[in-house]
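Exercise 7. Predict the structure of CidA/LrgA family protein from Chromohalobacter canadensis.
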Amino acid sequence: MPLIAGMSVLLGCQFLGEILVHGLQLPVPGPVVGMVVLLVGLMINGRVPTGLRTSGEGLLRYLTLLFVPAGVGIMVHFDLIKADFWPIIVTLVVSTALTLAVTAKVMSWLTRSMPRDPRDEWREERP
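Solution. The predicted structure, encoded as tokens:
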């Protein structure tokens, strides 16, 4: 029964995200907004309910199966990918490099802006 309740919460958040996207004409996918709704709900709740945890762990356990349709799609459209191979590779490399650079810059900025914990100096002095 907790599994059904957890899956209902997940699907309900996705449904709510779809409604918000269509109602507000947002340029993001509904499941993304649904994840934000779920995150806000979990932050308000302060903990992850057992049913939701069980459902999430079950989905993560079989996550690799969700990549099968993407792999099949690559095989089905192999000729299209082959025709645009280099633009795809260049786009992937450049976008990955930009993502890493922006992530490093944001992490550096956040690390500098956070107050330093006095216990860190104590930890660094210990052998």
